[in-house]
Amino acid sequence: MRYASIDIGTNTLRLLIAEPSADRGLKPVLYKRAITRLGGSYTEENGISREAMRRTIEVLEDFRKEIDSNGVSKVLAFATSVVRRAKNSAAFRKEVFDRTGIDITVITGDEEARLSLLGVLSVIKDESPRKLVIDIGGGSTEFIFTDEKGVVGEWSMEMGVVHLTERHLKSDPPGAKEVAALEGEIRSIIGELRKRASRAGVDLERYSGKDGAVFIGTAGTITTLAALDQDLAVYDRSRINNYVLKKANIERMYKGLLSMSIKEREQVLSLEKGREDLIIPGSAVTLLTMEAFAFSSLIVSDAGLLEGMILNEIIRPS
What we know:
Elements: E1 3-8, E2 12-20, E3 26-35, H1 50-69, E4 74-79, H2 81-85, H3 89-100, E5 104-106, H4 109-121, E6 131-136, E7 141-147, E8 150-157, H5 161-168, H6 176-199, E9 214-218, H7 220-229, E10 244-246, H8 247-258, H9 262-266, H10 279-292, E11 297-301, H11 305-315
Parallel strand pairs: 1-4, 4-5, 6-9, 9-11
Antiparallel strand pairs: 1-2, 2-3, 6-7, 7-8, 10-11
Helix pairs in contact: 1-3, 4-11, 5-6, 6-10, 7-10, 8-10
């Protein structure tokens, strides 16, 4: 049976067509992605902008063609942060269905975290029981704590790179005060995460790089940093999964990217078009999380929600 999963994110649309493999994993058939910035110019008063909807639906129409030409048996389309929040969410989903036949399910932050973890762990080789997994998205960031028994806690925090960019980064390159305000908000949200986790009974001392826990990162910011760290001229998923990113290297890249204009960042190898501004808050979220939990390195996963959707469908009782 061949499945298609579509991740309708605040920044990026992704399509995976895959089949179950003999090792209980997935055999990819086709992978496509496009940055449409669905959450760009989002407001609580108006919701998703008309222009962002247009960009996104055009890509979904292309995804529909790929699905139809690849013998897909089942389509799973999930929407996350911005579609969860938008007052015009229902209108957007109806227009998508009317034009593409794709039926979008809006998932909660907790469900997003659970499915992302399922995808991440399907490719990560490290078997350390205590893991902190981070999934940095356009509209929210998910944090998942695991131990030998499974998930200890999971939190979806309203800390997405699209909203952070639009709120703080007005100059090109960003000014020192803008960067300070950006980092201040991120530190505050990570502090709130730590409070929530502690109140829920998570022993944060056990989720420290100093106590043998492992930090794993997924989604566009972290995979882009892994590609940049390797000077990849062409993005190669096989060189991203399980790549170990050193905190010192991320700090070096972050400092360098901050000094560049958007046009200069456009020329950087492996920096996906449309991510030139978002890489700044994404790098800051990564670094400040590592600082808060005393991690000196992280393991990179190119798998996440897309794979988790299909794997969850395969293992679900019929």
